[in-house]
Amino acid sequence: MELEKRYQATMLRSKERKEALQVQISDLERENDMQAKLLKALDLRSLTLRKHQLEESLPILEASSRSPEGGRDLKGKDLEISILR
């Protein structure tokens, strides 16, 4: 009788621990999903900023390639080309 009560108590504690671990796993999975979404958003933002930087540099590069003195504008001033900032 005593052995059966201890067994049931042990099984109950085991079940409670299992449920607590399942809750922790669910919480960690949600946190992981949230972090993955944030990382994706940051990567996208970084790529968008880089795209805008390149788009801003494009007219300067085009003007440089068309200038008669290769790298100088029509007034003889050096063009500033800054692809990477």
From TrEMBL:
Keywords: Coiled coil. Residues 69-85 have a biased composition (Basic and acidic residues). The keyword Coiled coil applies. Residues 11-45 form a coiled coil. The lineage of its organism: Eukaryota, Viridiplantae, Streptophyta, Embryophyta, Marchantiophyta. Residues 61-85 are annotated as: Disordered. This is Uncharacterized protein. It comes from the Eukaryota.
